[in-house]
Design a protein that fits this description.
The chain has 222 residues and is of the alpha/beta class. It folds into two domains: 114 residues, Glutaredoxin (3-Layer(aba) Sandwich), CATH 3.40.30; 87 residues, 3-Layer(aba) Sandwich (Glutaredoxin), CATH 3.40.30. It contains seven helices and twelve strands. Helix 2 crosses helix 4. It comes from Strombidinopsis acuminata.
Length: 222
């Protein structure tokens, strides 16, 4: 077999029996799915890179693989015509205006069959709409927004990281995620971190809590 699917593998084995429940109904993450055949030479060449991409993005993007020849129903439903075919499924289902059926928006990967190519494609596709950009003067409004707990990532990089975007997707409706970085949010950094200018730093405020109840996450940023 092309892949060893076990508890330690970063790739989930998907098939006709579990594709809908395991992937289609999972709104907690972006999914990347490869449709392959065991005999396919291009699939064998790509397997190492696909496995490395899945391992590099473990906990950020979910990866699955479908043996298309053994699971023709799933392959046909996803328009698979050749191997390997790699598709990216966005987190939330949307209703098809013509059929009325729910489906996930799909992006097909046509880039290089390398780990770096897949990683770049997947991380760029993670929606950032669940992360609230914060600038000086906006912290109190953010903290007063609803009754959910809040988390703010203080960083020096101008872009929202894939990790933070994936947190926003996974924790939507359970936590508000904010991002503050650069000179435009220097006051926020001082308010939340004080004189400790070591970044990145994740500060969490409990539900209904105030700034004096904020705590700093001390674990690894992954």
């Amino acid at each position: 077999p092309l892949y060893e699917f076990d508890d330690a593998s970063p790739i989930v084995q998907l098939d006709d029996a579990n594709f809908e429940q395991r992937m289609s109904q999972d709104a907690s993450a972006v999914w990347v799915v490869e449709f392959y055949a065991d005999w396919c030479g291009h699939c064998k060449q790509f397997a190492k890179g696909y496995l490395k991409a899945a391992d590099n993005l473990r906990g950020i993007v979910k990866f699955g693989a479908v043996n298309a020849e053994k699971n023709p129903k799933t392959a046909s439903a996803n328009g698979v015509q050749g191997y390997p075919t790699v598709k990216l499924f966005m987190p939330e289902q949307k209703r098809n205006p013509y059929t009325g059926k729910m489906h996930k928006p799909v992006l097909e990967y046509n880039g290089p069959r390398t780990a770096r190519g897949v990683v770049d494609f997947a991380t760029a596709a993670i929606p950032s709409s669940y992360v609230i950009p914060l600038k000086d003067g906006g912290l109190n409004t953010f903290l007063a927004n609803g009754s959910l707990p809040k988390a703010v990532l203080l960083g020096s990089k101008p872009e929202v990281t894939p990790l933070l975007k994936s947190m926003g997707v996974a924790l939507r409706d359970r936590m508000l995620i904010g991002s503050a970085h650069g000179p435009s949010s220097a006051q926020i950094a001082t308010t939340l971190a004080g004189s400790d200018a070591t970044f990145p730093k994740l500060v969490v405020v409990p539900a209904g809590g105030s700034l004096d109840q904020a705590g700093t996450y001390m674990g690894e940023m992954k």
